[in-house]
Amino acid sequence: MGNKQSVQELFNKLPYPTVTERAWRHLRIPDYSQVDQNIIKHRTEYNNRSDAVITHTPHRHFEAELANDKFYLLNQAFQPRAQAITIPQNVRDAFVHQNTIVESSGTVLATTTITVNESSDLFFMEEFDNAQNKNCISSVTHIVVAKDARITYLSKLALNPHTDHHHYCIVSVKEGGSFHSMTLATNSRLTHAHLTVHLEGPYASATMHGLTIGLSENQVVHTTLQDHQSAFTTSDLDFRTILADQSHHYYHGLIRVGEKAHRSNAYQKNSNTLLSELAKTSSSPKLEILTDDVRCTHGATSGPLDDEQLWYMQSRGIADRQAKMMLLHGMCDPLIKSLHNTSAELMVASHIDQSLASII
User: Fold this and answer.
1) Which residues span the domain enclosing 46?
2) d(CA 196, CA 286)
3) In Å, how far are 58, 165, 194 from 158, measured between CA atoms?
4) Beta-carbon count within 10 A of 165 CB
5) Structure pTM?
6) Cβ 78 vs Cβ 12: under 8 Å
7) Number of structural domains found in the chain
8) What is the per-residue pLDDT across 139-154, written as a single tens digit (0 to 9) for each?
């Protein structure tokens, strides 16, 4: 199916989504019928403080799990090559910042493949900068984490109320490898983010964090898959959402534990804070367990800020707005600090500050 012609045939057969489909029925989506007719160029800038090798390569990976996703197929069918980033073996503390810059309106296709070789360590920060252009972005990031390697992956998705961003991150983690991610989503008209992690070798692990702040009429859809394929694997997912105005958020998460993945441990949590009566959220966590002797936990919460906590803080002289900001920062800060990179933490914290200041 990775053959370009086959993918294009599949793309042509599959219609663009409409509100009649279950996954899209709550969303306000535009007419996408002409989106593949206006594909424009973009440029990519790098801050490479490491021994990373950055080249171009033809597409080599097709994710079968996404074969029915029109926007994934859009990228795979019409984007001829990928930015390829390779970290050699035994490289410690590598750092790469990739910024995708879009300078006009239209459809943008961006693909990146990252390979972190054995016993290496990479911090990868991914940004999309399209100013105030009207864009439909389909971006794919494919990551391979080799034996005993580690990657921290920070994805700052498009921050533009005129943009629909469909982003797909597919990760393969080998024996003893470690994947840590943070997905930051705010202020796009529609953010449609998929995160799939295949834990393919024993003792592979994944920590998956997400921070979403919904403003105005923003719509955010997160879909995650924690795929335990081997024994003694661990995954920990924590996605936190703050919704204001008429913003909407939908979460679909699956923990899948395969027949060979005994002694695996999986955790999944989605927390939603509603700051407006018009904001909406829906969470659908699921388990698929095909073996014994595993530990899997999942859950979701939603509601307003705690009135008792607000009253306690106000009774000690803290103004209402400041009290709300303190509670919201308390939700975000643990995930931000888990990045363990000062410059990235400051960048995310600054963006969160600006977003919260606009809604409180």
Assistant:
1) 4-304
2) 14
3) 25, 6, 14
4) 25
5) 0.95
6) no
7) 1
8) 999 999 999 999 999 9
